[in-house]
Description:
The chain is of the alpha+beta class. It contains six helices and ten strands; from the N terminus they run E-E-H-E-E-E-E-H-E-H-H-E-E-E-H-H. Strands 1, 2, 3, 4, 5, 6, 7, 8, 9 and 10 form a ten-stranded mixed beta sheet that branches.
Amino acid sequence: MEESHEELLNLYDAAGVLVAARPRREAKASGLAVGAVNILLANATAEVLLQRRPVDKENGGLWDKLVGGHVGAGEGFDQTAVREAGEELFDDPATPRIRLAATDEEYQDLVAGTGASGGVVFRRAGLRLGLRDVRLVPGGGVRTVLYHVAIYRGRTDLPLEAFRPQPSEITELRYFGPLEVDRMLVQGALSPNMAFLWLTEGQALLEGAPLPPR
């Protein structure tokens, strides 16, 4: 997302209570936590789907979590996750190919059906409060922003050609095996945010990729 887009972003206190909505630049410089969503996906063979950031964006050229975005004014975390996934993966915020499961049982039912083969299925894994996000900015330099982040893990078995990634946000999509992601982390090929997510959420993502026995 470009910093010139001055949409209103939600701001939260330390306990996660919504307190205000401010223009993007003001929100990020406010010292309050900005709301954000991060979505991690793997396929049935535990390959992780990542996106490469455009070179003119923050963390440009690095591999990142599949979907990320800010919680806009009037939205909740779950609503933002569905919208951002549709926009970034299919260039359509209202696509029916994005399914957010409310419970573990619903998630299993969707994956056991045609959800993962026909689109993207995910569920919320948790809400992390007060994360200090460190980003490389175009042209050099580092930016830090305080976030409350809703993290989602899920499944897709779509081939790469089935996606229609948003050109302004994604240069490339690719599936990687776990050892490949490990190497990318130690070699500095992952964005700082994705490195954190891989260390804290990677094992649960991989264990949840195959459908558990019912």
